[in-house]
Amino acid sequence: MSRTFGAEGRATCLAIIAFDELKTDYKNPIDQRNTLDPVVLPEYLIHASFCVMFLCAAEWLTLGLNMPLLAYHIWRYMSRPVMSGPGLYDPTTIMNADILAYCQKEGWCKLAFYLLALFYCLYGMIYVLVSS
Amino acid sequence: MSAPAGSPHPAASARIPPKLGGAAASGAAAPAGPGPGPHQQNGPAQNQMQVPSEYGLPPQNYIVPSGHYSQGPGKMTSLPLDSQSGDYYSGLYTVPTQNVATPNTASQQAGAQQMYGRAPPAPHAVGSTPGSFQGASSSASHLQTSASQPYSSFVNHYNSPATHSASSSVASQGFPSTCGHYALSTVSNAAYPSISYPSLPAGDPYGPQMFTSQNAPAVRPIRDNSFSGQNTAVSHPSPLPPPPSRQYHQQQSLSGYSTFSWSAPGLPSTQDNLIRNHTSLATASNPTNTVADSLSCSVMQNVQPKSSPVVSTVVSGASSTRMPPAANRPVEPVASVTQPSELLQQKGVDSSSTTSSASPMPNSYDALEGGSYPDVLSSSASSPAPDPAPDPVPAPAPAAPQPSKMPKPFGYGYPTLQPGYQNATAPLNSGGPSSSPVYSGFQQYAQQYPGMNQLSSSLGGLSLQSSSQPESLRPVNLTQERNILPMTPVWAPVPNLNLDLKKLNCSPDSFRCTLTNIPQTQALLNKAKLPLGLLLHPFRDLTQLPVITSNTIVRCRSCRTYINPFVSFIDQRRWKCNLCYRVNDVPEEFMYNPLTRSYGEPHKRPEVQNSTVEFIASSDYMLRPPQPAVYLFVLDVSHNAVEAGYLTVLCQSLLENLDKLPGDSRTRIGFMTFDSTIHFYNLQEGLSQPQMLIVSDIDDVFLPTPDSLLVNLYESKELIKDLLNALPNMFTNTRETHSALGPALQAAFKLMSPTGGRVSVFQTQLPSLGAGLLQSREDPNQRSSTKVVQHLGPATDFYKKLALDCSGQQTAVDLFLLSSQYSDLASLACMSKYSAGCIYYYPSFHYTHNPSQAEKLQKDLKRYLTRKIGFEAVMRIRCTKGLSMHTFHGNFFVRSTDLLSLANINPDAGFAVQLSIEESLTDTSLVCFQTALLYTSSKGERRIRVHTLCLPVGSSLADVYAGVDVQAAVCLLANMAVDRSISSSLSDARDALVNAVVDSLSAYGSTVSNLQHSGLIAPSSLKLFPLYVLALLKQKAFRTGTSTRLDDRVYAMCQIKCQPLVHLMKMIHPNLYRIDRLTDEGAIHVNDRVVPQPPLQKLSAEKLTREGAFLMDCGSIFYIWIGKSCDNNFIEDVLGYPDFASIPQKMTHLPELDTLSSERARSFITWLRDSRPLSPVLHVVKDESPAKTEFFQHLIEDRTEAALSYYEFLLHVQQQICK
């Protein structure tokens, strides 16, 4: 469980790093898109599968905590710019300060959420181990 | 993709070795030799002088315009010239070079040899010089180049560095012969002030010269020439140039000067194309001109005695020569003027690949010397400053100007500098006051700048002195002010800077900011509720542009800012960057001022005297060798297209303009046509006729013969002409209705990717086959919906991806959409939007049924094919620390936070940038913005055009409101609204526009104005804001409730995004004039024509009387509305029909009648037309004709079914504020 959160976290970290590169370095938005887009869908799918597992395990509280993010992911992917392949980022608009700032903020918030979720799961696991 | 752009900025810029890239090596050696010489100025100069004297006569023989150039070089290089011309330039510049070269060689050889004899390195130098000459010639104005040379030679005489150049150019200078060196120098000096340095506007000393500015571009060189010529009479070349200058002066004075400042335009007349710029400049400069004239005359006289005969002869030649160049390249001429020297250098460099050594040598030498840019000097700066003093008569004026300049730039802004920099000669502030003559000169000088800043104002002759604070803050009760629109066009407000900075500031036509007082903090900006941003027109056609060739382009070490007029010099050796505040060293090379030929005056260099300059970049700024001009035409030949008949128009235009396509000997061109298959045309040289190759596999497009599809324009010209003649009839019987645009574009991309260039796509319907096929998305029933307008965004990302790929390969795609039905422009436009192309749309185009559209296409094509073009360009915008770029608007691909990738740049492209304030600006009183556009010219030169804008910081809300530039703000808002309507919805965008007015006025009401009025109060600076926003809401792009085709709407949005401000404003708020009673009152004089200036009318039907005739100027279209009971005299005199009833419904031309009112009307319309690149189509609209709805929809102050009238809108805003 924790390992998967790690994977998600890694994807988010990648996003944060990539956006930071974009902002500070002069990285080409097209390259950036090419590095990020492939990991967006896996991240969302992993998160969705976790939710399914929580559902199966009847972990209602955990599931409840994750539902907003799941909804957000669905909304985010539905409202993505017109594009033929999988992905989320449009290299022609990503350099707009608003969108860039939004993407960065999104990255940090999700990283924080995944970290908390990781510790929450660790706590849950240890609690289960100890109590059993 | 990114490489070219990226590399230049980060890496290349900073350290450009003193020497030119390839040439450097050889050049270095050569310079070394001369190097010592230069200092010895006197010695070498004298020698040279003598030599020239010998030549003086012969040159006459060679008087041929080009001769001048050649002479200089010729001496140096007679041999080299030949070789060079043959090897390097033969292809590109063959013609000009030849002209120049031949004379040079012949006359000068002997002299040149002598010259060389002096300096061993000379031979190299010589070679180089010729190169430079050639370059100049290529630049367009041979004369100019020649002029520059003479100039350089002068420089040489005076300055040691000059010696080298002198050696080359010196020959031309007959100076020596004319007088003792010194004597000559004095003479020359005198001459200089009068003539040569117009270009140098920056050049202080030459304030008077400035007058020439009109000519400036061309003139400068000329003047130089003239100088040389005058001095020398000897130098063939030089003599020629002078005459032209004289001629100009004379002409000016004769024609219109006396009457008007505009007369200056008269000068421009010589260069018609440039007219506009000229006019403005001219106006500014006219006074100077007159002065200059007087000065020049005196000078001339002084000089003339010796050379007069020669001069006269030369003059004619020179003038003639000049004219052509100007005509050919309206834009460049200016550059050329200054450039001559620069160009020379460049070319030298370019050519240098083989022989460059010669030119480089001088340069490098100069660099070594510290002053090295004689050429540059000649071009940009004027050495005259020192010189002027010598002449008694002229002296006062010139001297005065010099001082004025010197002190001015720094005096106020950077007091500290003055002491250090002042020359011995001009230590005192010229402070106009010193002497009356001086004063006058000074004034003129001053005027010029304003002129530059306010071209329009100068043109109009109504210089609105832009509002002082109190005026712009004067509260206006909008609901009670009935005539809010001023009678005269609205000019950009002038930033509240001190006089010196004002003069140096960038022209508002190129660079404007929505707030001319930048708020100190983001909080203050938020309070003001006004948009902060820049509007750019970076590649505008300019008539006067200092071009600088220098081994070292001086830039800040940390932020890479180019040195500009707003940096401060801490002492002679250090300057402080005005963007990042880092202290940088002044390179040794920069210490020498070519204009003044003095050392230790970095603040007088042209870079520091002009806020708009162009650098010739070295190889450090290239990722690959500069690409040739490559043009590919992709033409739809499906049944629909053939039916519309655009092929006839296009092929005709192409045939007419084939020789005018910008480019050099490497220019390549290709054609593709497509319907359901793709047709390539093999135009390989040697074929007896064009070969058509058909590829029917549109799913996997390949190039049938990769080599011969794009062919050299000159080698295959006959084949190309054959093809163009045959094309319109090749598909007349086609039954193919499908259009495989996507695959055709893929093929075009494959074809272009090795070189980059421009793809022009002509499309007449929805693409229906292969990749990128589109479906109709428009529901005609929704056209007048007031609710939701859908499908403003693309339906597929195919075209966007393609555009990004193209952009990466430095290829721009321009779209011409000629369609009678919905063609999903929203999707198709992406191919141009992201590849920095441009979009043209001709709804319901048909060559016989819709002749006005056909005429428009024809005119647009003429402009499109012949306008200047820059390839593989990048544009970086820098601003003072604390500000940052937020969002960009225009056609480009944003590569990083401040870098735009532009595969092509054209003079009609505008950009907008939103800014945000990230750090408080409390510790600075000025902020600067710098745009650097790096591009490859059609001649294969890498160039950097730099604009710098300086604005004060405002600390209070009142300051911010006082400095609002309404037009810029509205244009920026329009750009933002387009984004909003695509990303969100149209109604959101409309709400945002209304809110912008409500918020800003309520913020003003609650904070700044203490008056408690019942009405709607706005500061005077914002009084037009509600009107313009209302106009925007009624614009095709944003209107609702009125039937608007989706493509029309999307096209209007595209135009808002990529039009420069001047054109956009006309589109948003057209100008209405009453033209049935034109009088000469307040008229201006342009090129010997009297142009009436009728007052602006507000856009309301109440102004339309049935007895009148009105002209509406909508930017790309003119309407003439004829009232029902319009005076029959007017109809007969102007329209050529006996009465109202007999006027035809479709009339698109005014007949040339020999009546006063017809003449006035036509000259007014011509004047309006000349002021814009695209020649608008004229429609005569009768009061009763069905076409009048089109006219009436532009009357935005009136109420329509779906929209509020202006007064209602004001009430609505007031209501919102009170809520």
TrEMBL record, chain A:
Biological process terms in GO annotation:
vesicle-mediated transport
What's the domain of life for this entry?
Eukaryota
- Kindly list the places in or outside the cell where this protein is found, as annotated in its UniProt entry: Membrane
Task: Give yes or no: UniProt keyword Metal-binding.
Answer: no
InterPro entries per record: Cornichon, Cornichon_conserved
Output the Gene Ontology cellular-component terms: membrane
Q: Which residues form a coiled coil?
A: none
Keyword Oxidoreductase assigned: no
Transmembrane feature ranges: 111-130
* Membrane topology annotation: Multi-pass membrane protein
Keyword tags: Membrane, Transmembrane, Transmembrane helix
**PANTHER family under this entry?**
CORNICHON-RELATED
**Homology family:** Belongs to the cornichon family.
- The entry's protein name is Cornichon family AMPA receptor auxiliary protein 1
Q: What species is given as this protein's source?
A: Capra hircus (Goat)
Automatic annotation (TrEMBL), chain B:
Pfam families xref list: Gelsolin (PF00626), Sec23_BS (PF08033), Sec23_helical (PF04815), Sec23_trunk (PF04811), zf-Sec23_Sec24 (PF04810)
The UniProt entry's GO CC annotations, sorted and at most eight, read: COPII vesicle coat; cytosol; endoplasmic reticulum exit site; endoplasmic reticulum membrane
Domain Sec23/Sec24 beta-sandwich residue range list: 870-953
Residue stretches making up the Gelsolin-like domain = 1092-1165
The UniProt entry lists membrane topology as: Peripheral membrane protein
- What residue spans carry the Low complexity bias annotation? 1-46, 307-320, 372-384
As for subcellular location, the record says: Cytoplasm, Cytosol; Cytoplasmic vesicle, COPII-coated vesicle membrane; Endoplasmic reticulum membrane
- Biased-composition ranges, Pro residues, are 385-406
Q: Where are stretches of biased composition, namely Polar residues?
A: 225-234, 336-350, 419-428
Per UniProt, which keywords does this protein have? Cytoplasm, Cytoplasmic vesicle, Endoplasmic reticulum, ER-Golgi transport, Membrane, Metal-binding, Protein transport, Transport, Zinc
Entry superkingdom = Eukaryota
Q: Which family does it belong to?
A: Belongs to the SEC23/SEC24 family. SEC24 subfamily.
PANTHER family according to UniProt: PROTEIN TRANSPORT PROTEIN SEC24B, SEC24-RELATED PROTEIN
- Please state what the protein is called: SEC24 homolog B, COPII coat complex component
